């Protein structure tokens, strides 16, 4: 049996603006506030990519797409520190090397729920709320 790779779609954050709430529950489903892992294509070469951590900020259920997960990409690359599109969130169990992480705010990954590889961690409420404040102020989320 061949495993089908389900590729996330990248969308501008304002295009998918919605109400954001913190509802993590390590029950096997990707919930807002959880960090999950999924395959993400490189922007400069969509044929290449890697498995990476993604912060779930919402879900999008509609007739066309089954149940999609909305997520923000995480990175441990220090060059994001001075980039206004990235917010420092510190360290967490999602990174096995305990490196400081950054979350990308200007692009949302829309991931088919079947494309989520595993749950990695729960981001604490304080850090999640700081991200929610930015999404509301910059991109019209509620």
Proportion in helices? 10-25%
Outline:
globular
Give the low-pLDDT segments.
none
- Our measurement of the CA-to-CA distance between the termini, rounded to an integer number of angstroms, reads 43 Å
Work out the radius of gyration: 14 Å
Protein name: PemK-like protein
Family: Belongs to the PemK/MazF family.
Organism: Gordonia paraffinivorans NBRC 108238
Keywords: Toxin-antitoxin system
Précis, in short:
It is globular and about 35 Å long. The protein has one helix spanning 125-139; strands spanning 9-12, 34-41, 49-62, 66-75, 86-90, 101-104, 107-112, 116-122.
Q: Can you describe what's shown?
A:
This protein has 142 residues and is mostly beta strands. The protein has a single domain (9-139), classed as SH3 type barrels, CATH 2.30.30. The protein has one helix and eight strands. Strands 1, 2, 3, 4, 5, 6, 7 and 8 form an eight-stranded antiparallel beta sheet that branches. Strand 2 and strand 3 form a beta hairpin. It is globular and about 35 Å long. It starts with 8 loop residues before the first strand and ends with a helix. The mean pLDDT is 89.
Spell out the blueprint of helices and strands.
Blueprint: E1 9-12, E2 34-41, E3 49-62, E4 66-75, E5 86-90, E6 101-104, E7 107-112, E8 116-122, H1 125-139
Antiparallel strand pairs: 1-7, 2-3, 2-8, 3-4, 4-6, 4-7, 5-6
Q: What would the keywords be for this entry?
A:
11% helix; globular; mainly beta; 1 helix; 142 residues; single chain; SH3 type barrels; eight-stranded antiparallel β-sheet
């Amino acid at each position: 049996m061949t495993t089908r790779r389900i590729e996330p779609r990248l969308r501008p954050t304002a295009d998918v603006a919605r109400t954001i709430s913190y509802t993590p529950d390590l029950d096997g489903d990707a919930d807002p506030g959880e960090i999950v892992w999924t395959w993400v294509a490189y922007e400069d070469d969509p044929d290449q990519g890697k498995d990476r951590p993604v912060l779930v900020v919402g879900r999008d259920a509609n007739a066309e797409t089954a149940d999609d997960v909305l997520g923000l990409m995480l990175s441990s690359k220090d060059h994001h520190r001075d980039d206004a599109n990235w917010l420092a969130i510190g360290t967490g169990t999602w990174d096995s090397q305990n490196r400081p992480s950054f979350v990308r705010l200007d692009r949302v990954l829309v991931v088919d729920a079947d494309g989520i590889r595993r749950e990695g961690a729960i981001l604490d409420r304080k850090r999640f709320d700081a991200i929610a404040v930015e999404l509301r102020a910059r991109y019209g989320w509620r």
